[in-house]
Amino acid sequence: MNRGVGIWRCTACGAAYFPERLLCSRCHGQTFATEHVTEGVVEEVTVVRHVLGQNEWGPRRLANVQIINGPRITVGLRDESEPGTVITLFQDGNAPFGTAKE
Amino acid sequence: MFTNATIIAAGQSQYTRRPEPGQTTHTFIRDAAVAALRDAGINASEIQGMAVTSFSLAPDTAIDLAWRLGLSLRWLLQDTNGGSSAMNMLGHALRGVETGAASSILVVAGDATGLGGYAKIAANYNIATREYLAPLGHGGPNGVYSLVTTRQMNKYGLRKSDYGHMAIAQRAWAAKNPFAVYRTPLTMEEYLSSPMVADPLTRYDCVPVVAGAQAIVIAHPDRCPHGRAPVRVRAIHNSFNYDNQEGDGLQTGISTFAHELWNAAGVTPQDIDVASIYDDYPAMVLAQLDDLGMIKDHDLAAFAQREIGERRKPINTWGGMMSAGQPGGPAGGLNGIAEAVLQLQHRAGDRQVKGARRAVTTGYGMTLYRYGGTAAAAILERTE
Fold it and tell me: Do A19 and B197 touch (CB under 8 A)?
């Protein structure tokens, strides 16, 4: 697991993206700087309780998270964080996860 | 407005939750194609064009399907835009016939993924899903649209029961559709007490995956069987990646062209008798209706309670995918078009909307990351 989540910021206009883009949708620049963001604010939460074709499934908490000065991303919550909670972000593989900021 | 190209016929295969051994995507598509050609009164040898969409045709493509169906063609298309594919194919096929590229075009869509196949598709829908959503255990589109639904409830003050009106109304329509997989009437109590799938989505908010296929035939109105009204498309518009996933997903690409659509059609939402709105989730039905300008004052809750709950608006009169079943998003989209055709041709049986003359049909889909990236809408009209 790595602390923070990598996002991509257009070096020409500053627009931030996740996942990575090929061209910036605002200025169509093609150069991006990677940036590690460590915090976001939970906006909505769901608990995925049942998945088609999966007999042994444990509930998974997902959240829509607003990165400060960045994009909204979908995050796996590893705790009971609710909307409004500031969370600390980390990456497990490529995927973003979070827990409430201590 | 198309004058040389009309929709003249529709057909479908059986819809089933559990395909029998030997039933495949290909055989369901064949059954739908045969039904549509029979309905059109056109021999397979006369068909000059075909459009197809399916999540489970691979490794075959459209040309393989043409070969397997014994169709020698001069016009061929395969579409990959999910819930918008049917609308996309409709537009291309209309232009193909209108301009003389083909005199008649068969438009087909079908899937028979099975539960295991569906799970693989859901986890590998695109690179973003495979890399950033599936490892979270997002559970396919249910996880994505549960978040969208919560946003919509918060923004518009919707209650869970507001979505229930839609599930219940569509189930009542499905009771009159012999092809629907779920036809037993649904009560609000049953809806509200059904198992939670992905909060706030419960069982009846999630489309049941089925195996099946749909087909329609596009041709000159003169080819329409005697005594049947061909269906003309007054206007059709599409949108792809309308906001680069930078919004909240509560609008769809329909919002970018709705005014142009109505202007081009020369009619207003008040002129619509039947609506086929792509119903992958109840929240997205309301979003599309609002984008179309069909919800007064953007009051989604009042619309759900009065127009849908009190059955004032005939919406998804075949039961929608929520009750009839979703044979993959692509075929689900074609189902709505086929139903509009049957309604406008006054051939919808027990569910016929009396005197139906105009319909609106939509498509929505291809969840890029946080919500869908494709959308389309068309205004259809019965020609006398």
Answer: no
Sign of CA dihedral B370, B123, B14, B177: negative
pLDDT at B123: 85
**pLDDT < 50 stretches in chain A:** none
Q: Which residue of A lies nearest to B152 if distances are taken between CA atoms?
A: A44
Tell me the per-residue pLDDT of B134-163, one tens digit each, with 9 for 90 and over.
999 998 999 999 999 999 999 999 999 999
Angle at B315 between CA B314 and CA B320, to 5 degrees: 135
What whole-number distance in Å separates Cα of residue B122 and Cα of residue B133?
10
- DSSP character for B353? P
Q: Comparing C-alpha atoms, which of B221, B191, B216 is closest to residue B206?
A: B191
Token output for B7: 């929709």
**Which chain B residue is nearest to residue A64, measuring alpha carbons?**
B147
The predicted structure's pLDDT at residue A56:
82
Q: What is the mean pLDDT of residues B283-306?
A: 98
The Cα of B264 is separated from the nearest Cα of chain A by a number of Å equal to: 29
* Cα–Cα distance for residue pair B327/B213, rounded to 1 Å: 7
Q: Which two tokens stand for residue A25?
A: 């949708």
A interface residues, B as partner, C-beta within 8 Å:
18-19, 25, 43-54, 60, 62-64, 71-76, 92-97
Residues of A in contact with B127 (CB under 8 A): 19
Q: What is the pTM of this model?
A: 0.97
Nearest to B98 by CA among B224, B2, B235, B8: B2
Chain A hits for B118, CB-CB cut-off 8 Å, are 52-53
CA distance B98 to B90: 12
**Which secondary-structure segment (H or E) carries B159?**
none
Q: Degrees (nearest 5) of the Cα angle B332, B29, B77? A: 80
The minimal CB distance from A52 to the residues B118, B147, B196 is found for B118
Shortest CA distance from B242: residue in chain A? A25
Q: Does A74 contact B195 at a Cβ distance shorter than 8 Å? A: no
| CB-based contact B82:B366 (threshold 8 Å) | yes
3 state DSSP class of A8: strand
Contacts of B150 in chain A (CB under 8 A): 44-46
